[in-house]
Amino acid sequence: MLPAKRSFSSDVCCAVRDTCRLAFNLQNDNDLIRIFGMTGAQLEEIVEKIIDALPDAIFQKNYPPELEEIKCICAREFIFFQVQERLDDPRYQQDLNAFIHLFTRDIEKRVNGRVASVPTTIREEK
Amino acid sequence: MTMTNEQRFEIDFLSRKLKHESAEAVLQTVKSGCEQLKNGQPFASEKAQLDFMRHYAMARDLARLEPYLAQVEIKGLSSEQVRECKLMVSEFEKTSLVRKVSPGLFQAYQAPHETVMQLAAFFEKFNPKPPVNKPTY
After folding, report:
1. Cβ-nearest to A65 among B10, B17, B109
2. Model pTM above 0.90
3. I want to staple B121 with a disulfide (CB 3.0 to 4.6 A). Which of B6, B51, B88, B97 is the partner?
4. ipTM of the assembly?
5. SS3 B74
6. Phi and psi at residue B74, to the nearest 5°
7. Chain A contacts of B58, Cβ < 8 Å?
């Protein structure tokens, strides 16, 4: 995994925790079990898996504002996905892989749309 | 029009929770929760808040099925229900503080600080604080 991706993944986990503090009164990582059915270590592992699937090129270009936006989108979409799921569900891995596939596709479209100077609001309401 | 495997894959993913819960139950839970939030009322318990969030996330996924309505019938889900999900989610997200500041969430050209604040403002809606009772003297 690219060091930039690992660092980004850590930032996304922070954003998820910060959002959960606000939305779900998260006090510490023990509350993650209540919210997502997973520990802090599991959260970090799964977020790393999601980020690792994103194209390396996103992290090799110098687009800080864009990366900040993608970080927020990652945190938001992870929360909306994981709040519906449970780790011990037999279908979890299959659903996670499907989420990663579609999410990666949408982020690629978003980034490619920006590069082509075409405004895009993938996953946002117009 | 023939559906591609990718489209079928996305439909199956977005509608996956309909195996466990009806679209109508999702809609009712979200409607009821949104009314509560509009009135500034906090949820009765953390469990109730999480339950709302889970159903809101489901409605959000179902709303994303709208582009496929013309091409395929989705078991357990009517076009009307998809449109209702889209309307509820759209209305909810559009009334957030973020929308008053910028036309859309997470615009590419916002400063990093503002983008993080937008995320926080959006999710603050899920945890409304009760009004502070100020003492009168």
Report:
1. B109
2. no
3. B97
4. 0.86
5. strand
6. -110, 125
7. 84
